[in-house]
Design brief:
It is a single chain. By secondary structure, the chain is an alpha+beta fold. It is 24% helix and 42% strand. It has one helix and four strands; from the N terminus they run E-E-H-E-E. The strands form two sheets. It has a two-stranded antiparallel sheet with strand order 1-2. The longest helix has 17 residues. It is globular.
Length: 72
């Protein structure tokens, strides 16, 4: 979407509703966007929502300018 990206595999963890620690494989993707306007952010959010559905996740996270957003 922005001309390139870097993907890093890792392990993520979170607390379930019954307070159990859940660990799972994750892929963190970094992409640099020089001119990030509202239209482009909306496009990224739409893509994140489709990934969330495709991967059957309760949410995915998106970081913009150092601030974390959860796409639910």
């Amino acid at each position: 979407m922005f001309g390139g990206a870097t993907a890093i595999d890792g392990t993520g963890s979170w607390l379930s509703d019954d307070n159990q620690l859940i660990k799972e494989k994750v892929t963190i993707v970094y992409s640099y966007a020089e001119d990030l306007d509202k239209k482009k952010i909306n496009k990224v959010v739409t893509y994140a929502k489709s990934l969330k559905e495709e991967m059957k996740q309760s949410s995915v996270s998106l970081e913009v300018n150092g601030k974390m957003y959860f796409i639910e």
